[in-house]
Amino acid sequence: MKAHCSLSFSTRPSLWRPAFKEQPPMANDTQATTADAVSNDQVIDVLNDLLENARDGEYGFRACAKEVDSAQLKPVFESRASQCASAASELVALIRQLGGKPDDGGTVSGAVHRGWVHVKGAVGANSALSMLEECERGEDAALARYRKALKADLPAEVRMLVQRQADGAQANHDQIKGLRDQFRSAKG
Cα separation of 88 and 29, whole Å? Predict the structure, then answer.
């Protein structure tokens, strides 16, 4: 099965060239002015937000793999965790290439969500359907963060990577939702 989140990363030395304020645009210049261009720091902030998102996905899928009582779903969740880890590695490399410092860990809301998955597992609510529902909630949150990132005025090369990862998150969401629907119909 092809990995949806496992993306290739360009190793070109410079993906982002910040605009220089000391060189005003020419009168007939059709490119964005420096006031319109997003700063390198803003690009790094967007990428760090997505890095936390990818780590939340990795940690969340690993938690579900650990807690789920379905032998069919364990490898699905483990595969998704690995794909999210690959996406995180790409983002770390890009952030460093742009001169930024990658954030550590995931988000507080991601940690709370994983805690809820563990609680459900501890009290016996770790059915396949229950875990799929939790994964779908996590994927909904991931998609929202990618949509927000894609609204930013990102350099073309950065946008391409973000779009590919967003497409991977959408594919993950669709697969998880399909599995959830399958388990729901089998239950009812």
Answer: 37
Quote the CA–CA distance of 156 and 154 in Å, as a whole number.
6
**Is the model's pLDDT at 24 over the cut of 60?**
no
82 membership: H or E segment, kind and range: helix 73-97
- Is 95:44 a contact under the CB 8 Å cutoff? yes
Fill in the amino acid letter for 142: A
Residue 56: name the closest of 159, 175, 182, 169 by CA.
169
Rounded to the nearest integer, the mean pLDDT of the chain is: 76
Model confidence, pTM: 0.73
Give the mean model confidence (pLDDT) for residues 122-128: 57
Q: Is 36 helix (H, G, I), strand (E, B) or coil?
A: coil
Residue 140: name the closest of 105, 183, 111, 170 by CA. 170
Residue 142 pLDDT greater than 60, yes or no: yes
Distant-in-sequence contacts of 113-120, Cβ < 8 A, 24+ apart:
113/56, 113/60, 113/137, 113/138, 113/141, 114/56, 114/59, 114/60, 114/63, 117/60, 117/63, 117/64, 117/67, 118/63, 118/67, 120/67
Scan for tokens 């996590």, then name that residue.
138
Torsion, Cα 125 131 137 143, to 10 degrees, reads 170
Average pLDDT over residues 72-86: 95
CA 109 to chain centre: 14
